[in-house]
């Protein structure tokens, strides 16, 4: 079992490390040495510092040393030399662990966040540039005669719509430049503004002569009884930035899932070791039945069935782990919510057993919801882990955690995770969903922020409430999958 446990740890998709009480590292996972391209012997002790970027080395060791002296969890960001020679940003998180009640050292993970750090810096620069550009540059302007269909365009409008300056501007020319999928929407918006003699605001795509697609906004107001005056703005970069931000948000959410899986390594190993241990016992029993004189075929068949069930249990845990750490893009499908919730709880069963906690269930009738199963499980997992942390160290009462699902409308279902921990201080309740805000002594404060972003991407809400007499309740809603028409 210990060999299987070590293999599991080695094959987790994270860079893991372990340090002894004297602060000297005695273990690095394969992912860590594969990342740095250095031999294990080079990393042991304080050798890992040699691969840290020189300007980051002192601060990294200071955070490390401070955490060790205080026996506290820590989280720090620094640049680590990749085997390619490039220094890449990593997030290192560690926490103390004990054996037989005695401090035995630190265990932690490093996560490659370089692409996210660089992308976020680039996006900040682009956003600043766009803000300056919109302030300093002139947008395209036009005058449109509704009665004759004739237009007057500024140079900026010619450029945005990709017409040569000697072309006679007309409404019909604009319509032909609009993307076919947006054309009817554009025409209807213009017709309504002309019919109601009101303000126009419409966003659409235009196809330039080189085949590139640009996103354009047009705003106008009536000027005389026959004409509108307005402006056009190319918002292509803004839309591309928003799409990039969405991709960044998804990648950040995946990094959070991988980090969580690393922290739950021992718990997951426990969940795999149990069925594997049972499988070994059943395999031995089957061998004994077959060696009997005569062979006990009925007992052998029954034992093999139990063996297969054990293997399936271990396989299910591994499949769940792979799904939660995969890089697949968001995939909105119909799935059974209660089944997904119960499967998520299995991943933390070892942690629950270690802290002598259990989760009570109050599940509504099984319904299918519409969403990304992995992301929804990530939200449930984060809320459950927060509840475990809140109740795991209570001294005056036994910790309790509850998970409920309930219909709140014909098309919505609410999922709640409650605990009887100390709750969230009143002054912090409005900030707990903000990025980088945390009431903990460690961590980046991204968990609840990511959870809310995921839920809102599912057209739902995530809220917090106190429970009586003490404790926390986090509830979020999801849309129920539409039933197929008969």
UniProtKB/TrEMBL annotation:
Histidine kinase domain location is 267-482
Q: Which residues lie in coiled coils?
A: 297-324
Recorded GO MF terms: phosphorelay sensor kinase activity
* Keywords tagged on the record: Coiled coil, Kinase, Phosphoprotein, Transferase
Sequence ranges assigned to domain PAC in this UniProt record? 74-125, 200-247
Checking SMART domains in the record gives: HATPase_c, HisKA, PAC, PAS
Query: Top-level EC class, please?
Result: transferase
Pfam families on file? HATPase_c, HisKA, PAS_3
List the top taxonomic levels of the source: Bacteria, Pseudomonadati, Pseudomonadota, Alphaproteobacteria, Hyphomicrobiales
- From the Swiss-Prot or TrEMBL record, give the protein name: histidine kinase
**The enzyme's E.C. designation:** 2.7.13.3
Q: Which reaction does it catalyse?
A: ATP + protein L-histidine = ADP + protein N-phospho-L-histidine
């Amino acid at each position: 079992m210990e060999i299987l446990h070590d293999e599991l740890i080695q094959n987790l998709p994270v860079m893991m490390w372990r340090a002894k009480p004297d602060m000297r590292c005695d273990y690095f996972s394969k992912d860590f040495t594969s990342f740095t391209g250095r031999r294990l012997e080079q990393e042991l002790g304080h050798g890992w510092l040699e691969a840290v970027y020189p300007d980051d080395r002192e601060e990294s060791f200071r955070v490390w040393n401070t955490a060790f002296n205080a026996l506290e969890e820590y989280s720090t960001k620094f640049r680590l030399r990749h085997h390619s020679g490039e220094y890449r940003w990593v997030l290192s998180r560690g926490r103390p662990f004990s054996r037989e009640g005695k401090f035995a050292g630190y265990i932690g993970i490093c996560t490659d966040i370089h692409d996210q750090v660089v992308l976020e810096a680039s996006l900040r620069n682009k956003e600043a540039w766009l803000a300056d550009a919109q302030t300093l540059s002139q947008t395209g302007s036009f005058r449109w005669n509704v009665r004759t269909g004739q237009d007057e365009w500024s140079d900026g409008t010619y450029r945005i719509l990709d017409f040569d300056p000697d072309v006679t501007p007309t409404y019909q020319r604009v319509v032909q430049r609009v993307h076919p999928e947006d054309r009817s929407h554009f025409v209807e918006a213009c017709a309504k503004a002309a019919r109601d003699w009101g303000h126009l605001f419409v966003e659409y795509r235009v196809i330039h002569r080189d085949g590139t697609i640009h996103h354009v906004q047009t705003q106008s107001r009536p000027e005389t009884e026959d004409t509108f005056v307005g402006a056009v703005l190319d918002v292509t970069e803004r839309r591309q930035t928003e799409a990039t931000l969405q991709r960044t948000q998804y990648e950040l959410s995946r990094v959070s899932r991988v980090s969580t899986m690393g922290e739950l390594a021992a718990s997951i190993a426990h969940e795999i070791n149990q069925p594997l241990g049972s499988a070994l016992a059943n395999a031995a029993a089957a061998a004994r039945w077959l060696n009997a004189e005569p062979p006990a075929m009925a007992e052998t068949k029954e034992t093999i069935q139990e063996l297969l069930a054990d293997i399936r249990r271990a396989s299910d845990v591994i499949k769940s782990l792979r799904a939660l750490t995969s890089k697949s893009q968001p995939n909105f499908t119909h799935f059974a919510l209660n089944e997904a919730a119960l499967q998520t709880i299995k991943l933390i069963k070892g942690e629950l057993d270690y802290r002598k906690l259990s989760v009570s269930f109050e599940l509504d009738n099984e319904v299918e919801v519409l969403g990304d199963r992995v992301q929804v499980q990530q939200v449930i997992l984060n809320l459950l882990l927060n509840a475990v942390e809140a109740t795991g160290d209570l001294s005056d009462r036994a910790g309790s955690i509850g998970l409920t699902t309930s219909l709140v409308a014909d098309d919505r279902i609410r999922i709640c995770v409650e605990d009887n921990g100390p709750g969230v201080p009143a002054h912090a309740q409005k900030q707990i969903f903000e990025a980088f805000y945390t009431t903990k002594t460690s961590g980046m404060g991204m968990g609840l922020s990511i959870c809310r972003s995921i839920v809102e991407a599912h057209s739902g809400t995530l809220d917090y409430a106190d429970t009586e007499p003490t404790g926390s309740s986090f509830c979020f809603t999801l849309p129920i999958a539409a039933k197929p028409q008969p």
